[in-house]
Design goal:
The chain is mostly helical. It has helices spanning about 10-30, 35-50, 55-65.
Amino acid sequence: MSATANSFFSPEDITVLRGALDKWCLEKRIDIKSTEAQFAATAAIGLFQSGYNTSDKLLAALREHKGL
């Protein structure tokens, strides 16, 4: 079972997550439907739940994430 299986996100949370992921994919020139983008989305959810709860903070954390 996924660690995020019991998580609930508001529409505002989804907007933050998607906005940061879209910007990250654009910077990296990665298709949003790619496997790499899926890994980034998973990382973004974890980072968001750790307190990176604005698009700017989340994008900065994705840029510094070692696994991406």
